Amino acid sequence: MSRTRPINCIIPPYILEKLMENGDGEVRQAALDTLLTTARLRGERSVRRGLTGLSAAPGNSRRTVFDCDHSEDLSDAVVARSEDGPESADEAVNRAFDALGLTRDFYKEVYQRNSIDDHGMRLNGFVHYGVRINNAFWDGGEMLFGDGDGVEFSNLTGSLDVVGHELTHGVTEHTSNFEYHNQSGALNESLSDVFGSLVKQWAMKQTVEEADWLIGADVWTPGIAGDALRSMKAPGTAYDNPLVGKDPQPDRMSRFVHLPDTPRGDNGGVHYNSGIPNKAFYATAMGIGGFGWEHSGRLWYEALRASRPRDKFQDFADMTFQQAGRLFGVGSPEQAAVVAGWHEVEIQITGVPPGLTQPRSFAVNGHGGAGREADLAALTRQIATLSDKVTGLAKEVATLKVKGSR
């Protein structure tokens, strides 16, 4: 499997493997079919891109949704809705079309990005892919939507954050290109969750306090209220039921999940350990407040653009700190919130000068509070004071150099 060009999918393999133990034979079969389809797509990615002939072509970000009519052969799919065409009678087609457009518009209006590749890449979606497929896929050029099994999953076009998540894999591929294994792979997954959630928040005009910070809640276990595939606010709590067990995501480094770097090992736990940077973003966004796509989203986006394929959590944490200083100023509340956010998941920013203490731990409750404000205010003052000292020392050194050259 390619490290840099994988098949990305929203449903973690550990959920599908758990569903293969389900007492319902149809649920078991749907999970098995989905796993087999995922493995096949992984091996056929380059062939599939050649078959569609549209994936890499520039097209002014134009959307086209195709109907696979339950086939897995994309060459047989027919156009169901185009950029200039009328609405379809098929709600899955319309949902996919609208979600592709909202994600495209989010990146254009918020971050001035021209489609996924920043060069006007076409946005192609294929609905009714296969029979009862429990997944949505991004293959580097288009999105594929399964219909779900109707028991554990509803139609995968029904969740805006799922579409935002998958298309963000494309953005990552055209920016940092995080390798899809171990910590870089978990960052790849986390960035998709971050911007998938932000697309939904932007569309609904929600503040960070109003957002639910859940991924896939609209399509996962339609018969069970209140659960989701993942929770950015509280990784490890997204679901807990007899059908699939308990959400296994860790929320801090001391709970990091060590798995083999193989497909069966989730490529080193990419869907598990993404909970750690997810929680760091959530905590940072809550520390900054307001609309998440503005300051906290902006600095995460710029950090993504500045990162390298093999970066680990520490590298990305340091980069967010640097970007916060560049965008909002050294010692700014935003930079203080970044330090506090990563501290929440037990990662200490190496870019913070040694003389600066980390903030005290605090429980993130979704509403901030006096304790949080005091911590951030104190941290901001410390950063500003230390920055002034560094500036003063730099001036003294420059003066000594001038004197020594005389």
TrEMBL record:
Q: What is its EC number?
A: 3.4.24.-
Highest taxon of the lineage: Bacteria
Broad class of the protein's primary localization: secreted
Required cofactors, per record? Zn(2+)
**All residue ranges annotated as the Peptidase M4 domain in the record:** 90-173
Tell me which InterPro entries the record gives. Metalloprotease_M4 (IPR052759), Peptidase_M4 (IPR023612), Peptidase_M4/M1_CTD_sf (IPR027268), Peptidase_M4_C_domain (IPR001570), Peptidase_M4_domain (IPR013856)
Which subcellular locations apply to this protein?
Answer: Secreted
Broad EC category = hydrolase
Q: Pfam families under this entry?
A: Peptidase_M4 (PF01447), Peptidase_M4_C (PF02868)
Which residues are in the Peptidase M4 C-terminal domain?
176-347
UniProt keyword list: Hydrolase, Metal-binding, Metalloprotease, Protease, Secreted, Zinc
User: What is the role of this chain?
Assistant: Extracellular zinc metalloprotease.
Q: Which family does it belong to?
A: Belongs to the peptidase M4 family.
Q: Could you tell me what this protein is called? A: Neutral metalloproteinase
The scientific name of the source species is: Streptomyces katrae
Its lineage opens with:
Bacteria, Bacillati, Actinomycetota, Actinomycetes, Kitasatosporales
